[in-house]
Design goal:
The protein has 12 helices and 9 strands. The chain is an alpha/beta fold. The strands form 2 sheets. It has a 5-stranded parallel beta sheet. It is globular and about 55 Å long. Bound molecules: aspartic acid. Aspartic acid binds next to α7.
Length: 328
């Protein structure tokens, strides 16, 4: 099937490609034109997906391996869907089905994957830096699908696309990222992306969940929701990452909700047209009230999931174009 004239296929044909890196390991260090072009490409994939068309010729004959050492629902399925919509052969490897359980090291796993001639490797790992390590060993283009508390670059891109489509711009907006900043790779990637693209970023949460160094990333720190949300255009809620907490960093879920859980009362501090985001999975009644999460006007949580597929298609497209440039 021929791709539509104004579809993703044409977008990069017409302009210079700014994203020249082999991998996507982090948002930190990316320049505005690189981010902007990934978002434009993803936007054209939203239209393609909504039209019901596919572009299965783009990655035909290429192999994408989803290597997940940590649980995932949205990220893994959306990478799978993205790869399939572009025509790639997609293989899912969960930790329980791999030899890692039998003691194989990350380096041995990488060597095995290399021997399989995988083109695109999507990695999630509980250790920060694992995708970077793999990128140094495998031939494939590596995409970080979340590493420890470090980064989750495609989540930040899909969040930015959601914001851009809803608000018509990114620069100049006030974005409040609320909750467990300390353990959140989503927060780190979003802070890098949104500050690079000209947002005023605030982080809001209890002192035990906001590391002191975060202020060095160009954000303003608040410990009070009323002050942190005042005048915000975007309210991004984060999950309490209990699995990464070493000791009791919050008194109780009930008390946490009272002070930091987003309900309609606290949302009223933000701008009247502020949108509410959450990367999922949500703890309803802990960091967010169901009435807000399901608010059809303010909540864009479902839209974030839709944008996730488009962003991952754009990333796979962009990186595979890079690979093709290296072909003889
Ligand atoms: N799904 C996101 C992540 O993998 C957010 C979360 O788990 O709370 O980081």
């Amino acid at each position: 099937m021929q791709p539509p004239v104004d579809g993703p296929h044409m977008l990069l044909q017409r302009s210079a490609v700014f994203y020249r890196q082999k991998h996507l390991l982090a948002i930190e260090g990316l320049q505005p034109p690189e981010i902007g072009q990934l978002l434009d490409l993803a936007d054209s994939y939203v239209l393609l997906n909504r039209s019901g068309k596919t572009q299965r010729d783009l990655l035909r004959g290429r192999t994408l391996i989803n290597l997940f050492f940590e649980d995932s629902t949205r990220t893994r399925t959306s990478f799978e869907l993205a790869g399939k919509r572009l025509g790639a052969d997609v293989i899912n490897m969960g930790v329980s089905s791999s030899s890692v359980n039998k003691g194989e090291t990350l380096i041995d796993t990488a060597a095995t994957l290399n021997a399989m001639h995988c083109d695109l490797l999507v990695v999630r790992h509980d250790q920060s830096g694992a995708p970077n390590l793999l990128a140094q060993i495998v031939d494939a283009a590596v995409i970080n699908a979340g590493d420890g508390t470090h980064e989750h670059p495609t989540q930040a891109l899909l969040d930015a696309l959601t914001i851009k489509r809803r608000k018509g711009r990114i620069a100049g907006l006030i974005v409040a990222i609320c909750g467990d900043i300390a353990h959140s790779r989503v927060a780190r990637s979003n802070i890098h992306l949104l500050t690079t693209m000209g947002c005023q970023v605030r982080v809001v949460g209890p002192p035990t969940l906001i590391p002191a160094e975060v202020a060095d990333l160009g954000v303003t720190v608040f410990h009070d929701m009323a002050a942190g949300l005042a005048g915000a255009d975007v309210v991004m809620m984060l999950r309490l990452q209990r699995e990464r907490m070493t000791r009791g960093q919050i008194p109780s879920a009930r008390e946490y909700f009272r002070f930091y859980g987003l309900d309609q009362e606290k949302l009223a501090y933000a701008k009247p047209d502020a949108i509410v985001m959450h990367p999922g999975p949500m703890n309803r009644g802990v960091e967010i009230d169901s009435a807000v999460a399901d608010d059809p006007v303010r909540s864009v949580i479902k839209e974030q999931v839709e944008m996730g597929v488009a962003v991952r298609m754009a990333v796979l497209d962009m990186l595979s174009r890079g690979n093709r440039r290296n072909e003889p």
